[in-house]
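Re: your question about Phage shock protein B

S., sorry for the slow reply, the queue was backed up all week. Below is exactly what I fed in.
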Amino acid sequence: MEISPLMIPIFALCIPLLGMATRLVAAIKAPAQVRGPLPETAALAEEVAQLRIELSEMREKVEFTERLLTAGAPAMPQSVASRQPVGVLNV
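Result:
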């Protein structure tokens, strides 16, 4: 098999491409811990932590409100319940 003179530059160009392809495959197969987290991950983790705090506070407020409602507010006296609200016209 004879190598033509045109094949020499083609081989010369393929060698660096093979090296780049090898590094690319190795980077893809590398575990995430080696590559490190993405910069957005830290910001998202902080936002999730803040949302969890807010959700916890909202749960406490809901539980407090439920306790107030289930404790039973004293019944409104009939005289107060039968009154018309101010500004409402009786048609």
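The radius of gyration is 36 Å. The helical segments are 7-29, 32-35, 39-71, 78-81.

Happy to talk it through on Thursday.
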